[in-house]
Structures are given as structure tokens and as C-alpha cells.
Design brief:
Length: about 190
């Protein structure tokens, strides 16, 4: 799970920092940290500066352009299509004994949860930028609305896969235990 590194990375990148130094400060798996940095870079949270053989990262607090936001939403929607396809491939969500979710379903729910967390991070950043007057209220609200629709679509697909009460309750329990709230993200 890559989102657990985001707060640590953002905390340590207020000034330019190399990949190795960032890894030393965070103390997590380097491959996971690099993947998290790539995701934060794609989401507009970080910027990079290559110097000689090193790559330096720094937190990017400027507002995202309309073009960059559109690209981000395209990436979100591509991931959403993949998750919806994976969901449609599941023949059964519950284990044969009926006492829990199948591993394939848990893996798919983890991917969905990661995407929802990423969308919530972008919403938190937009909310911060709106309050700081870095972006107009109308643009921020419009983008937040797009993100809400994105999250609602995938969550509706997941919860409507099976209509029986046991499966619905198991899925809801999973998301209650694993979901982060919008307010929990730090910018």
C-alpha cells in the first residue's frame, strides 16, 4: 500500500531532497517510497529536479493547471475502468464458507481503496488551495465535484456487485476499517 508513505514524503520535502536522503529520513522500503513519489509527482504534489546522477524532490504547493487536472482525471478514470473490469471478472465475492471475502476480492477492494484515498488527497489539496486563495472557489468546487462523482461511481459499482445483505455488510465493513476520511489528509 503506497498511500501510507504520502504524509511522510510530503513532510520531508519542504526543501529539495535527494531520493537517498529522503529514503534515509523516512526509513521505509525504497521501492515503495519511489512508487509513492512517482504517484505524488503525477498528482501534482511534488516536483523534481535532476542534478548529475541524482533526482531531487520538493513539495509543490502551486495550484494545478486545468490541463494537469484533466490528465490526472484521465489517469483516475483509466484506473477506474481497470477496477470495474476486475470487479466484473469476479464470479463470487464471498468465500465458499460464507465467512469472509475472497482474497481476489480483498485485493480488488484494496486497489479501489487506494484510488479513493488518492482522490481524497486531491480534494484535500483543492480545499486547502481554495481556502488559501491559490485557486478560485468555482474551479475548486467544480474539480471536487468531478472527484466526488469519480469516487461515487466506483463505490456504487463495488457495493452493487452482490445484493445480498451478508456480502454488502462485508464490503461496508472492509471500507469502514480501511478508509481514511477526507479530513485526515495533511497538506
Amino acid at each position: 500500500m503506497t498511500t501510507k508513505n504520502y504524509d511522510s514524503i510530503l513532510k520531508e520535502t519542504s526543501n529539495w531532497i535527494s531520493t537517498n536522503d529522503l529514503h534515509k529520513k523516512i526509513g521505509t522500503d525504497k521501492a515503495q517510497m519511489i512508487e509513492s513519489c512517482k504517484t505524488l509527482l503525477a498528482m501534482g504534489y511534488l516536483k523534481t529536479n535532476p542534478k548529475q546522477n541524482k533526482l531531487f524532490y520538493r513539495k509543490d504547493d502551486k495550484a494545478q493547471s486545468e490541463f494537469d487536472f484533466t490528465i490526472l482525471m484521465d489517469i483516475f478514470e483509466m484506473n477506474q475502468k481497470n477496477e470495474l473490469h476486475n470487479l466484473s471478472q469476479l464470479s463470487s465475492i464471498m468465500r465458499n464458507d460464507g465467512k469472509g471475502l475472497r482474497q481476489k476480492c480483498l485485493d480488488m477492494l484494496e486497489h479501489v481503496n487506494e484510488e479513493v484515498k488518492r482522490a481524497n488527497m486531491v480534494k484535500a489539496k483543492l480545499d486547502y488551495q481554495k481556502k488559501s486563495s491559490l485557486i478560485s472557489t468555482n474551479i475548486a468546487d467544480e474539480r471536487i465535484k468531478k472527484l466526488d462523482k469519480y469516487v461515487e461511481k466506483i463505490m456504487n459499482a463495488v457495493t452493487s456487485k452482490n445484493k445480498d445483505d451478508i456480502t454488502t455488510k462485508a464490503i461496508q465493513t472492509y471500507f469502514k476499517q480501511h478508509a481514511m476520511k477526507f479530513e485526515e489528509f495533511k497538506i
